[in-house]
Design goal:
The chain is of the alpha/beta class. 40% of the residues lie in helices and 13% in strands. Strand 1, helix 1 and strand 2 form a beta-alpha-beta unit.
Length: 163
């Protein structure tokens, strides 16, 4: 099973959007048994709060429900619990390194690294542009899933191909 933790500053916008978009993609591909997908924050500012209403609405526009999700903070032991820890921006990545004490197994990445235009996922907190965030998250998650399938890192129930 591939365990993925998406991480942003507060765990109320970008990382829960990524969590639920990825869950939706995995569900549509019939791969739910192969993944555990969650999200967390690098800060304590929003701990216990639900997904930010505009992010929740953007997910709902695409038929994705995030009911019950509340913000939690990344913990040091999450590094051992997850196979991939995916940050939304460079600041998140720096804080992830700090909280986890480094990245000794190469598990930490930025979501947009999996796309043709690496960088940060658009932050809607200051811009209120949830459309841009949606585009980044959707593309990043789709490319990440494609990469995992291509590399055969997951999907033990599928027959192995050796091309």
């Amino acid at each position: 099973m591939m365990r993925i933790l998406f991480v942003c500053h507060g765990n109320i916008c970008r990382s829960p959007m990524a969590e639920f978009v990825m869950k939706d993609l995995v569900r549509k591909a019939g791969l739910e048994k192969d993944f555990l997908i969650e999200s967390a924050a690098t800060s304590t500012e929003e701990i216990g709060n639900p997904v930010y209403p505009p992010a929740r609405r953007k997910l709902a526009e695409h038929g994705i429900n995030c009911t019950g999700k509340t913000a939690r903070q990344l913990q040091n032991d999450d590094y051992e619990e997850y196979d991939l820890l995916i940050g939304m921006d460079q600041t998140n990545l720096r804080n992830m390194y700090r909280i986890c004490g480094g990245d000794f197994e190469g598990k930490m990445h930025l979501l947009m690294e999996y796309t043709d235009h690496p960088g940060d996922v658009a932050d809607p907190w200051y811009t209120d542009d949830f459309d841009a965030t949606w585009r980044d998250v959707e593309e990043g998650c789709q490319r990440l899933l494609n990469c995992l399938r291509k590399e055969r890192i997951v999907l033990p129930h599928e027959s192995k191909r050796y091309d």
